[in-house]
Amino acid sequence: MDKKIGLKEAISIGIGGMVGGGIFAVLGLAVALAKGGTPISFLIAGLIALITSYSYVKLSLKYPDRGGTVKFINQGFGIGLFSGGINNLLWFSYIIMLALYASAFGSYAPNLYELTSDKVLDSHIYASAIIIIATSINYYSIAVVGKIEAYAVIIKLIILLSFVGFGLYGLFGNPHLEQLSPKNWESPFKLLTAGMVIFVAYEGFELIANAAPDIKDPEKNIPRAYYWSVIFVIFLYVIIAAITVGSLEFSEIATAQDYVLAEAAKPMLGKVGFTIITIAALISTFSAINASLYGGSRVNYEIAEDDELPKQFTCMLWNQPIGLFITAIATLILVNTLQLESISTAGSAGFLLIFGVVNLTSYKLSKEINAKKVIPLLGAIFCFVAMAALLIQHYSESKTDVYIALGIIVCSFLIEYLYKKVERSQKTA
Q1: pLDDT-derived band of residue 142, with 50, 70 and 90 as boundaries?
Q2: What is the distance between the alpha carbons of residues 296 and 145, in angstroms, rounded to a whole number?
Q3: What share of the chain is helix, strand, coil (3-state, %, to 5)?
Q4: Global confidence as pTM
Q5: Nearest 5°: phi and psi at 246?
Q6: E strand or H helix at 272, and its extent?
Q7: How many Å apart are CA 110 and CA 271, to the nearest integer?
Q8: CB 102, CB 285: distance < 8 Å
């Protein structure tokens, strides 16, 4: 029986990883920051993802491994404090993404059914409940997780593409269309930083790396899977952003910031459109939580296997790596303590740093992986500059968000340092 993955399945992994809960969670945030230039912000973030995908293509072809990003960083920098800290950050970033998806689920769900008279309380109840349900499914059967993801990708793409079709038609003659004109754009620096806050909406293409060993005809299909999935999602996001800004007043977008995509369906399809997009958001965020819980627990397991975390993390609990339980608990804590913008900023900063390091790995190993040095070098520079711009912009508006993002990065390296220190002292004892 052939268990290899074809091109269509590989592209689906990339698209499914990106078009998860990200667009539903961060679209309103993007408009609040970039105003009429929101499509440009999505384009900027997408281009950085596209340049970085070149490094992933070359590394996936040379070092196909289910450890994906973890293995690439270890290959480039060896197993030590630096690679261990970055890999820990990757695991933490999975947890942050889970909190982002759960937060989006919690924002959309009360639009269908209110549990209490307090919408904020409803949001936390729904967000916590969906994490617990998804964790239970992961423990019950990994096969079920795969089936949910396969169906969810099809459903959410059909609904989003329908939204694009109706939305483009509805834009003709819409009085809000002029909001897209350059006079309503924020400054170039703000457009860049808005793009970086929403960078989390693109990070999912890196999941193709984990599937690389199983892809048929890798020399041909791995590059196509990365590039086609990223390019498709860039077009999808830019068009969705344009439709949203061109369909609603900025004040309406601000009011419905946490569920703005559903609100944007109202002018063209009324209450029915609002409900359909809300259901699409719930399906998307639920499937993203399911897949990210699985991915996060595997990343944690891989790091421990490479001796960058204690070997106890390779232990099993109820037939799954113990990292699944720890990831779920950490997500529950984050989603009930942090605001959406803090979560998004921390997630974007984490992935920009990780992708910057992956680009450096590709630059460093350019001869071995047959890569043109200039592309990964540009990718690394763009990632680091974008991360710095994100933190500088946010420092002037919300110092707490910056402290949280930097705290998570420092914590990733501190954990690795302490683990290595304890390990050395045990060896010499």
Answers
A1: low
A2: 14
A3: 85, 0, 15
A4: 0.86
A5: -85, -5
A6: helix 266-305
A7: 15
A8: yes
Give Cβ neighbours of residue 193 (< 8 Å, ≥ 6 apart): 33, 389, 390, 392, 393, 394
Find tokens 């970055």 and name the residue: 86
Helices (H), 172-217: 188-197, 207-211
Tokens linked to 43: 């384009």
Residue position matching structure tokens 């592309």: 375
Kindly list the structural domains of the chain, giving each domain's residue range(s) and its CATH number in brackets, ordered by start: 7-428 (1.20.1740.10)
Distances (CA, A) of 20 to 7, 116, 265, 293: 20, 27, 19, 13
Find all residues with CB under 8 Å of 85, minimum gap 6, and list them.
Answer: 412, 413, 415, 416, 417
Question: 317 φ, ψ to 5°?
Answer: -130, 115
The pLDDT tens digits for 376-385 are 999 999 999 9
Instruction: Tell me the CA distances in angstroms from 55 to 228, 360, 379, 423, one per residue in order.
Output: 15, 9, 8, 33
Distance between CA atoms of residues 331 and 346, nearest Å: 13
Measured distance CA(308)–CA(28) in Å, rounded:
38
Sign (positive or negative) of CA dihedral 120, 125, 128, 133 = negative
Residue with tokens 């968000």: 401
Q: State the distance between the two ends of the chain, measured CA to CA, in whole angstroms.
A: 51
Distance, in Å, from the CA atom of 341 to the CA atom of 402, rounded to the nearest integer, reads 11
Is the torsion defined by CA of 98, 104, 107, 109 positive or negative? negative
- Smallest CA-to-CA distance from 68 within 79, 60, 77, 76 is with 60
Q: Which amino acid would we find at residue 291?
A: A
Q: What is d(CA 295, CA 91) in angstroms, rounded to the nearest whole number?
A: 9
Q: Give residue 271's identity as a one-letter amino acid code.
A: K
pLDDT digits (tens, 9 = 90+) for 67-115: 888 899 999 998 888 998 999 898 888 888 888 888 888 888 888 888 8
CB distance 378 to 51 below 8 Å:
yes
Specify the 3-state DSSP secondary structure of 5.
strand
* Residues 6 or more apart in contact with residue 151 via CB below 8 angstroms: none
Q: Residue 136: which of 318, 330, 280, 323 has the closest Cα?
A: 318
